[in-house]
Each structure stands twice: as C-alpha cells, then as structure tokens.
Write a structure and sequence with these properties.
The complex is a heterodimer of chains A (505) and B (776). Chain A has 505 residues and is mainly α. Helices cover 77% and strands 2% of the residues of chain A. Chain A contains 22 helices and 2 strands. With 776 residues, chain B is an all-alpha fold. Helix content of chain B is 72%, strand content 2%. A two-stranded antiparallel sheet of chain B has the order 1-2. In chain B, strand 1 and strand 2 form a beta hairpin. The interface between A and B is large, with 131 and 111 residues.
Chain lengths: 505, 776
C-alpha cells in the first residue's frame, strides 16, 4: 500500500467530512478548509517528488491483484495534474476566505470544494476505466451543487445546461465502458491496453474510441461540444468559476490524453488526425467566441475553450515532444487562467460589474493590478517571456517536426486573435476612463472592500499565480524537463502497463 | 557576460524606476540616461576589435530542450545597431525628463523605455533566433504601452491597438518562419544558420520560410501595405516617436533582412519582393509626407519612405547597395531623431505642431533653429552633411546597373529624394523663417535637457560628413561585411568627383528647391490625392477588425445559441457521425451475426419495450409519459430475470417504483404540459433520436458478436468465497473488490442530499444585471 497515492483522495475526503460535521461553525470550517487544502498541496508535492525520482507509483485497491481490483497509479502526468490541483485548491480556498458570502459558506461551500478536489484527484490517479467514471460522477455532482448554490436565476439557467449536457456525457461514457467490457472483458486500463492491442476488431475498437472521444470531449469542452462551458462559468461566485475554469475541463483533457495514449493507439491515422483537426477548430471557435464578448468572465470562458484546442494539439501530433507540449501547456493554462479569473473578481470589487463596457480607469489608479492582469494575459496570448510562449513553441516545434504546417499557421493566427481579445479587456477595463457612474469608486481608498490583513488571502493567490506564469517562462527548462519525461512516459505506455500488471503480461 | 548584462540591464532596472524617480526628482532623466550611456561606452570599446575582424559571442543554456539559448553575438552589423540604440537611448532619456517634466506617469514611461531598450539590444545582439524573437515581441508590447501613453484618449488607444495587431501579426508569422528555419537548418543559432545559405536557398521550404520572415520584417518596418500603423503611432509622446518609431524599433525589420541576407538573400524571389515593396514604400511614404500639416506626421511618413529605401537597397544586394544601406541607416537615425526632437521642442515651446501656424521662430529659439537647420540639411542630402554622402551612395548603387528596371527604380528614388528635400525644408527650415505667427503659447527657447539630444544628433551628422574616414573602417565596413557575408573594401568621401550620382543630386536639389518654393500651391493638390488613402490599408484595417468582430459574433450566436435543445442536437449528431464512420466504414460489423437462440418471449418483451418507449416520447401528458417510462423500467427488470440476475432485477424494480412515485409527486405541482415543438421539429428530433438509437444498437450487436473473450468476472466467481469470504458476488464486488467505486458513489449521494437541502433552503437576492447565455 502506497500511502502517497491515497492521500490526494483521502485528505479532501476527510476535510469534507469534518467540515460537514462542523456545519454550524463557519470559522472552524474555514480553518479545516485551509488546513486541508494546504495538506493536499503538501501531499501532491510529495507525490510528484517521488514519481519524479523513483518512477511510476502503483497501488492496488484492497490489495486485490490487477486487473481484478482497482488500480491506483501515478505516472508523471498524473502527478503533475495532482500537483496543479493542490496549487489551485489552496489558492481558491484562500481567496474564498474573504470573497465567499456567508450564506453560501453556511450551506456547505467548503465541504463541496473538497469533494470536488477529491473527485479531480481521483480521476487523475485511477488506473481503472469504471473507477474513472465514478470520479467523474463525484466531481459532476459537487460542481453542479456549487454552480447552483445560491439559486440566483442566471445560476440556475447555467446549472441546468451544465448538468444536462454533462449527464449526456456521463451516459455516453457509461455506455462506452459497457461496450468496451463487452469487447475486451476487463476494466483495468493497462489490461485494456493489452487486450485492445491484440484485438482484431479494429472498426469496433475505433468506434468505441470515438464514443470516449465524445464523452470526454464534452467534459473537455472541445469543438463542437463545448456549449455547457460558456453557458455556466460566468454565473457563480468568482472562486467557484475559478476552480471550474482551472480544473473541470482539464479532467476531460487528461482523460482524453490518457485513453488516446494508453488504450486507443491502433488507428492513429484516423483518431489522432481527427483530434488534431478538432484542436484547430476548438482554438478558432474559442477565440472568436472570446472576441464577441463584453463580459469579462464570459470572455475568459471562451478563451478556456481556445486553450483546450492547444492542449489537444500535442495529443493530435502524437510524438513525445507534442505530448510534452501538451503537458507544459496544461501547466501554463491552469495557472494563467485561474490567475485571470481571480483577478476578474478583484476588478469586480472595484467596478461592481463584469461588463467591460462599464469598467475603466484601472490602469491609472492601480498599476500593480494592471501588471497582475498583463502578465498572465499576455502569456495566454502566447507572448514571451511568459510560460505560454514556451509551451506554444514546444507544440509548434513538435508540429513542424511531423510537418503539420496547417495547425502551425492556425495556432499562430489564433495567438494573435487571443491578443486582440486580451487587448479589448485592457482597453476597456484598464485604459479607458471609468464611466461616470463608477468614476467616484475607482481609485477611492478601500475600493477592494476589504483592508489590512484581510487583503492577504485575496491578493496572495493572484500575485502568486500571476508571478508563476512569468517565472515558469523564464525558468521554462525546469518545467520542460519534467514535461518531456511525462511526454516520454505517455508515448511509451509499456512502463505504465508493466507497473500495473507486473510480470503477468 | 558583459553582453548579457547590457541586454538585461534595462529589465533589471525598470522595476526600480519609482525609487529612482523619488530620489532623482527633476534630474531623473539624467540619472536614467546613465544606463544606456554605460552600455554605449561598453559597446564603443568593441569598435576596435570588431573592425579588426574579430567577433564576440557568449552563450548560456537557457532552455536547451527547445534549443533556446541565451546566446549573443557581436559583429559589425549588431555593433552599429547597438551603438545607435544605446546612444540615442541615452539622449532620449534626458529629453523625456524635460519633455514630460512632472507628468503623473513619467515613471511608467521610463520603465517602458528601459525595457524597450533592453529588448531592442536583445534583437540586434541575439545569436539564437528564438531569443531574438522573444525580444522582438517585447518591443511590440512596450511599443503598445508607449503609444497608448495618453490612454484616456480614444485615438491613442486605437492607434496603439492598430500598431500592436499589425506588428504581432507579422511577429507570429515570423515565429513560424524562424521555427521552420531552425528545423531545416538543424540549428537555431544565427552563426550556424548563416553558413548554410546555399542549402537553404535550394530547400523546398525556402519560399514559406522567406515569406513568413518577410511578414515579420515588413510589418515591423512599416512597408506598404502595412505602413499605416506608423503615422498612427505618432499618438505617443514625442521622445517615444523619436526613439521607437523612427530611430530604432521600426528598423528592427531592416535589421532582420540585413541579418538574414547571407542565409536567405540573393534569390530572384528575394530581390523581386524587396525591391518592389521597398521602392513602393519609399515613394508612397515620401508622397504622403508632403501634404501633411502636423510636423510629427510629416516626419512619420518620411520615416516610412526611408524604411522603404533601406529595404530597396538590401533587396538590390550589391556591395554598393549594402554599403549605401548601412550609411543611410546611420544618416537617417541621426537626422530623423534630431528632427523629431526638434518637433517636440516646437510643440513644447509654442503649443502647436501645425506647420501652417508656425513661422519666424528663429528669433525666439535660435539654438533650436541651428540644430533643426543642420538636421534638415542632412535630410535634404546637401553637403557637407553626412546625409549628402548617404544620398550619393544610394544613387551610386542605383546607376551602377543598366536595364529598364534599375533605371525605373533609380527614377523613383530620385523622385522620392526630391520630395524628402522639400519635406526637410518644410520641417527644418519653414517654422524658423518667414513672418511670425500667433501660436497658442508664447514661443521660448528650450531648456538644456531638451536641447542636448537634437544638438548631439545633428552635430554628429555634420561631424561625420566632414570627416567620414573616421567611421568607414570602424563601423560601416564591418557592418557591410556582416550583411554581405564577404570581406569588402570601402572608400567613402564627401567629394566623389563628377559622376552620374552627382548629376542626379543636382537634379534633386534643383527640382526640390523649386517645389519647396511652390509648395503653397502644390500642397493643396497633393492633399486631394492624399485623400485616396481612404481606399488603401488605412481604411481597410478598421474594416477588417469590424469584419472580425462580426464573424466572431455570427459564429458565436450560431453555436452558442442559448437553447439547450440545439446543444443536445449538435452533440448527438456529432456522436452519430464520428462513431458511425469507423463502425460502418470498416466492413467487419456483422461478420458473425448470431440471433439463433432468441426465444419468443424475449421478442415479445422487446416489442413491448419499444412500444412503451415510443409512447413515452409521443405522449402529450406527463402522467402518460411517466407510466410508459415505468413500463420500460419494469421491462428491463424482466430482462435481468431472464438472464439470471434476480438481485439486479430487484434493485431495478425498487428504483423504478420510487422514480415513478417521485416524478408523479413532483409533476403534480408543475404547470400544465404545453407542446411547443412544431411538427417539423418533432420529425427532425425523431429522425435524430432513431439514428442515434440505431447506431447504439449496431454498436451493441457488434460488441456482442465478439466471441472467445475471457473476462475478469471469472476471477470474482472463483475468489469471492475463499478470499473475500462472501457468498453474494455482487455484494463482494461492491464492498470489497471494487470498494473504491462504492466510496465514490456514496459521496455522490451525500453531496446530492446536501445539494438538495441547500437548493431548497438558500435563495439569494437577485443581482440586477444578468448576462444570459446567448452568443454575446
């Protein structure tokens, strides 16, 4: 039993349970929540360190031998994802201390956040396709309740679309698992990899692969399945938007990368080419959607869709460098996007709106805030020296090496369009003079509505995440070193299979 | 090491500007000017060694995984650029302090200028092409922030955006070109790429590489049709215009062309594109400059013209032409920087930049008048200024070759130079002579901080003109050699003897002076033709941006319609499409059909289920639909019994019963059911539903026709009792073999319960402005 593999699920579960027990004690809940999130980050870092130095870590649930029980496994990709979950979890919990309203807090905000974190970590760590489905359910129900919590009209509209489309995804996912079991007779992903590899039914296998592509594609918000995301992300409080923006779609992308590197690699000429095409369309529709927005968070939501395209690009290219690019881009996208979502909360506090037309004057009065926006935002547009640029260069180099020049040009032009969207935010919210109705508010002391020590939980996460996008750019080699290894592991799944099944194969 | 420090100094010091400003007060400009000054002095120490044929290169690993190194390289070309950037940089820092004395955002201006200078040095000193690109994009960003310095004005904001979009468009394309270039040549270091010219020019990817890199160079260096952003950039404060948009940044594109000349230059394609674009830009810029009345816009368009001249010369690519390009580059930076700064002084001193409102300033501003006169003489290409040498060399390079095209180009060049001479008079002489006019402010001479810069630049133009030999061997020859990639011998002097170039000069001066004195009548005519620009890229740009907006809006409204039913339809149709293609396209679907042992009661049940499902879908009452669904549920339970799973059947019956009861209870409170779908919609939905159902059926049949499989369930069968000590296999699977799944599902139920409680109890007040989920 490898405890490190269990902790990322156990810590949030315990935190959520204890917080539930402390239902009527908000202060205690907050303390538990921060402690739990910090412990999760600690455990995640420990896991990443061990996987990085000792290789893939495996443990079998209940000590039942694979493929009969449930395998818990972490390769570098999983460990990186869990690490990112830890960072985002702590950032969001800290930010929520000041920003979440007491009503939501007293109706289970903290337990729900930790259930969500547990679901996310479980999805990253499981080696069993049905267990993956279970974790999807956990994070779906937790995210649905978080989304609907408060019952505002816009929230409900978003939540209904969110839950309907995601349930459709779950149904497809479940059907796909059933059919897959019918074909291969197993649920363990490593075992599936072997059995599918030996299968002579390529048409059926590829058709099942397509079902998974759709099921995970809905979760990942790819073209043309992304509708639930821009319909819902701008409706709940900022912290909830942030954790969704950072993690939910990424679980979908993670699952796509996992099954299309481990299990469905028999027909890459069809499957991975299709993924590359989808990647291009996802980038383009996402960024065009962003350009059409005047609501800050909705604009960012469409940019998430755009980023998903870049994440898929590496999978479509399907080389070690391409997958390393996807992993690097994943790190960049999660950090940058959460920085910007949290920042949108700060600007909302000052301007009392997310509508860009009704914002203004931030550059004049808040130079530090302007830097906090500009750094991750320019990184999102793939401009140097932020991490986004080097992640993009990794993907472009990989694409050029396999001579997929179309996607190179698409990615470059999309970067420019992202910059146009970003420049619109900058122009409206930062450069323009504030409209008359808020002119008195912007620049007034205490505009953030909190002061003194209470500013720390509000600002610390934004500053940390925004700085990280720059630091990870300048120190890109450190990130790349690990991303390259992760890409190698993904491209050569024999190590993964060996770790799960040992000598049985 | 010193090279890295020189490049990074600006970035390191920029964050400390607020403190420097607090300590330095009104002398901040002089203090900050020390940074570029030190760099300039350091680079000057390299003049000797470089002239002796040495080069300097340092390289540190930065991101070796992507072949990105922090490598810098100095040869004649980078040194000439580096000296310009740091030298003019020092003068600009001093000038900006005087020009924007006491301005609220002066600190930010200095921070941006320092970062810009570092980036610019990075471009010209980088050996690694990705590192070069990193700095390239940084100049675009700092330029954006500087053009939008007066950010409360809508004009400044849109000019900044325009410049950003145009330059970054080119930048992105250039990135593609550089990456392909690196891939093809197997190295991202310029020093290695430049030795592979013969291979590159023959390579099948040569054309895309060249076009992509040219896209970057042409947008940055404002070549037609991308020239329009540069006059717009005049919204920036004057020191910024002088530094970025005349002396340095806009020359980055020219630098890239010169730098890549040994690797990519010399082909027909190269020559045709560069000569066409350069020649066109040269004449269009000069022509558009003529009718302007804003001093800065006159200068901006004449800068466009000069950039065209440089591109033209590099395109021609002969020894004489490259030599002319290097000399003209220096000449232009000196006089144009000086004239921009003079324009700033005039603006500062009189409150206007409109040339129709300026005249007779020489009495009030005598020193400025002398400085402006010297710069104007150099711009006009008159002896004894450096500008004369530059123009002679350009002419020399053009008359060297015979044939129609070179003659034609030479003719255009003479025409452009005539116009530039007129413009030199308009900006450098006109405001200071003639009668006094009323200006918004009473004219006064500028303080030393404003005069230092232009005086030094104009003085250098005179000094080099008088003693050109000082600079030939030390700067011009090494730079020319670096561009050509071969050793050259150069001789330059003020007096070349009587030759065709001198004759062209005489024509230029004669016609130019004539036009200058007739400008009162000619400019209105030119102004009418100037209005044609509205059919050019200047009008196209906003159109393109509006087009982009409307495409974005249309596609987003189409996809993100706000209607859940369309979302569902899209997803289902997509699923059917992507699954059916491999399923039916591979011809192996029903190769083992096996319906032999289907029993009659199974068929009967199947028919019942189908009918119930159909009734549920078409029912017009909720209760009827629920009842029909209940039939489906119990039917499924029956199937479980047929296949020997009584415990599953029991669960199914319980769930189904509970579901029907709950639904009836809930629906009792809902308003009456209303049929909203049209007949057509119903047919459409039915077709989609049947297709999706058919596809799933086919999938299941295909999956089941797979024989001889071994499943993991055998293991559960065998080990349930001996190892897990349980007789009910399903129970053992749930609580032991796959206990983690159950833990997850319990969590789901707990959260669902908490969620229902919270949703029922917590109703927050409605905020006012809600954004619906509709396109935008």
């Amino acid at each position: 039993m490898n405890v490190l593999l269990i902790l990322p699920m156990l810590i949030p579960l315990l935190t959520a349970s204890l917080a539930l027990l402390a239902w009527n004690h908000p202060r205690l809940q907050r303390g538990l929540s921060v402690f739990g999130a910090a412990s999760l980050l600690g455990a995640a870092i420990a896991l990443l360190t061990v996987v990085w130095s000792d290789g893939i870590q495996v443990t079998q649930g209940g000590n039942w031998p694979a493929p009969f029980g449930i395998t818990i496994i972490s390769d570098l990709f999983s460990a990186i994802m869990v690490g990112l979950t830890g960072i985002i979890g702590l950032s969001v919990v800290l930010y929520s201390l000041v920003s979440i309203d007491p009503a939501r807090e007293s109706f289970g905000f903290h337990p729900l956040i930790h259930v969500l974190l547990m679901g996310v970590c479980g999805a990253f760590l499981t080696g069993d396709i049905f267990n993956l489905y279970v974790w999807f359910e956990v994070l779906l129900i937790a995210s649905f309740v978080l989304l609907a919590l408060g019952g505002e009209r816009a929230q409900m509209e978003g939540a209904i679309k969110y839950v309907t489309l995601n349930l459709l995804s779950s149904a497809i996912f479940l059907a796909a698992i059933g059919l897959l079991y019918g074909e291969a007779g197993t649920l363990n992903m490593a075992d599936l990899a072997i059995r599918l590899g030996n299968s002579d039914r390529q048409g059926l296998t590829t058709a099942l692969a397509m079902l998974f592509l759709v099921a995970f594609g809905i979760k990942a918000a790819i073209f043309p399945l992304f509708f639930w995301l821009p319909a819902s992300y701008h409706t709940p409080p900022v912290v909830i938007s942030t954790i969704f923006a950072a993690l939910l779609t990424k679980v979908g992308v993670y699952s796509l990368i996992r099954v299309f590197t481990l299990m469905f690699t028999q027909d890459t000429a069809l499957t991975h080419t299709l993924i590359l095409v989808i990647a291009g369309f996802t980038m383009v529709t996402g960024v065009l959607g962003a350009i059409a927005q005047v609501e800050f968070r909705r604009l960012l939501s469409f940019l998430i869709v755009c980023e998903i395209g870049f994440l898929l690009m590496g999978l479509g290219i399907f080389t070690p460098l391409g997958l390393a690019g996807s992993v690097f881009f994943m790190i960049h996208a999660i950090i940058s996007m959460s920085a910007l979502f949290l920042l949108s909360g700060l600007t909302e506090r000052i301007c009392h709106t997310f509508n860009l037309k009704q914002m203004g004057g931030l550059y004049h009065s808040y130079p530090a805030l302007a830097v906090l926006f500009l750094v991750p935002a320019l990184g999102l547009a793939g401009l140097p020296p932020m991490a986004g640029f080097f992640a993009k260069v990794t993907l472009l180099q990989a694409a050029i090496e396999v001579e997929s020049y179309t996607i190179v040009i698409v990615a470059l032009v999309v970067s420019l369009l992202v910059l146009v969207a970003i420049a619109r935010v900058w122009n409206e919210a930062f450069w323009k003079n504030p409209p008359d109705d808020i002119a008195g508010l912007v620049g007034r002391p205490g505009a953030l509505q909190v002061s003194g020590a209470r500013l720390i939980p509000l600002l610390l996460p934004v500053v940390t995440l925004a700085s990280l996008t720059l630091i990870m750019g300048i120190a890109a080699e450190a990130i790349l070193a690990i991303a390259m290894d992760a890409g190698e592991q993904l491209m050569n799944p024999s190590g993964y299979i060996q770790a799960v099944l040992g000598g049985q194969q | 090491m010193e090279l890295v420090a020189a490049v990074l100094a600006g970035f390191v010091i920029a964050p400390f500007v607020p403190w420097i400003r607090r300590a330095g007060r009104d002398y901040t400009g002089w203090i900050i000017a020390l940074v570029p000054l030190f760099i300039c002095v350091y680079l000057a120490t390299l003049i000797g060694p470089i002239a002796d044929g040495e080069t300097r290169r340092v390289s540190y690993d930065w991101i070796p995984s992507l072949h990105i190194n922090l490598s810098f390289y100095v040869d004649g070309l980078s040194l000439a650029f580096g000296l310009l950037i740091s030298g003019i940089g020092a003068l600009i820092m001093v000038y900006a302090g005087g020009y924007l004395k006491g301005h609220h955002h002066l600190g930010r201006l200095y921070a941006y200028l320092l970062m810009f200078m570092g980036s610019m040095l990075g471009i010209v000193l980088a050996d690694n092409i990705i590192t070069l690109f990193v700095f390239w994009e940084l100049t675009s960003i700092t330029s954006y922030l500087l053009i939008g310095f007066n950010h409360h004005e809508a004009k400044a904001r849109s000019a900044a955006l325009q410049a950003l979009v145009v330059t970054v468009l080119g930048g992105q394309l250039m990135l593609g070109g550089l990456l392909i270039l690196g891939y093809v040549s197997g190295s991202y270091e310029l020093t290695e790429i430049l030795t592979q010219g013969d291979m590159l020019r023959e390579h099948s990817l040569y054309v895309p590489i060249l076009l992509l890199i040219l896209a970057g160079a042409f947008t940055k260096s404002a070549q037609v049709p991308f020239h329009f952003w540069l006059p717009g950039a005049m919204e920036a404060p004057t020191p910024v215009s002088a530094y970025l948009h005349s002396a340095t940044m806009v020359k980055a594109g020219v630098y890239v062309l010169a730098r890549f000349h040994p690797a990519l230059g010399g082909t027909d394609l190269w020559t045709i594109i560069l000569v066409t674009a350069g020649g066109l830009t040269m004449i269009v810029g000069a022509y558009l400059a003529f009718p302007q009345s804003d001093l800065k816009r006159v200068l901006a368009y004449s800068t466009v013209s000069a950039l065209g001249t440089l591109v033209l010369l590099i395109g021609i690519g002969t020894e004489r032409a490259i030599e002319g390009a290097v000399v003209f580059l220096l000449v232009h930076s000196l006089y144009k920087g000086a004239l921009f700064l003079v324009a700033g002084i005039i603006d500062h001193g009189t409150g206007t930049r409109d040339i129709n409102m300026l005249g007779g300033l020489r009495k009030a501003m005598p020193i400025t008048a002398v400085v402006a006169g010297l710069a104007a003489l150099s711009m006009a290409g008159l002896p004894p200024m450096f500008g004369f040498i530059g123009k002679e060399l350009v002419y020399d390079a053009l008359v060297e070759e015979s044939g129609f095209v070179p003659r034609f180009v030479a003719g255009i060049t003479v025409a452009a130079n005539i116009l530039l001479l007129v413009i030199a008079g308009i900006v450098g002489i006109g405001p200071f002579f003639g009668r006094n006019r009323d200006t918004p402010e009473h004219p006064h001479e500028a303080p030393p901080s404003l005069l230092t810069g232009p005086a030094v630049l104009a003085g250098l133009g005179l000094a080099i003109g008088l003693i050109p030999t000082l600079f030939i061997g030390s700067l011009i020859q090494p730079a020319t050699q670096a561009i050509l990639g071969d050793p050259v011998a150069i001789s330059i002097s003020l007096w070349h003897g009587f030759n065709p170039a001198l004759a062209l000069s005489a024509i230029t001066v004669g016609v130019g002076v004539g036009i200058y004195f007739g400008r009162g009548r000619l400019r209105p005519i030119a102004l009418q033709i100037y209005d044609w620009r509205w059919y050019g890229p200047e009008r196209a740009f906003p159109r393109i941006m509006e087009g982009l907006d409307s495409i974005a809006l249309t596609q987003t409204r189409l996809l993100q319609s706000g209607f859940l039913r369309y979302y569902l339809l899209t997803i289902i149709i997509t699923t059917v499409a992507v699954v059916s293609y491999p399923l039916f396209g591979r011809g192996e679907l029903f190769d083992r059909p096996d319906f032999g042992d289907v029993r009659f009661y199974e068929i009967g049940l199947g028919v019942l289920l189908l009918m119930a499902a159909f009734q549920a879908a078409r029912s017009n009452s909720r209760l009827g639909a629920i009842a029909a669904l209940g039939v489906v549920g119990y039917g499924v339970a029956l199937i479980y019994i047929f296949y020997g799973a009584p415990d599953l059947a029991m669960t199914q019956v319980l769930v189904e019963t509970l579901m029907v009861v709950l639904l009836v209870l809930v629906f009792y409170r809902l308003p009456r059911y209303v049929q909203r779908s049209t007949r057509g919609n119903q047919v459409r939905d039915a077709i989609v539903a049947l297709t999706a159902g058919g596809m799933m059926t086919a999938l299941i049949l295909a999956s089941l026709s797979f024989e001889d499989r071994t499943t993991i369930s055998a293991y559960f069968d065998e080990n349930s009792v001996p190892l897990a000590h349980g007789r009910n296999i399903v129970n053992v699977i749930l609580v032991d073999f796959r206990a983690l799944d159950t833990l997850g599902e319990i969590t789901v139920l707990a959260v669902a319960a908490a969620g229902v409680f919270a949703l029922l109890r917590l109703r927050l007040a409605e905020p006012q402005d809600e954004e619906a989920d509709r396109g935008a």
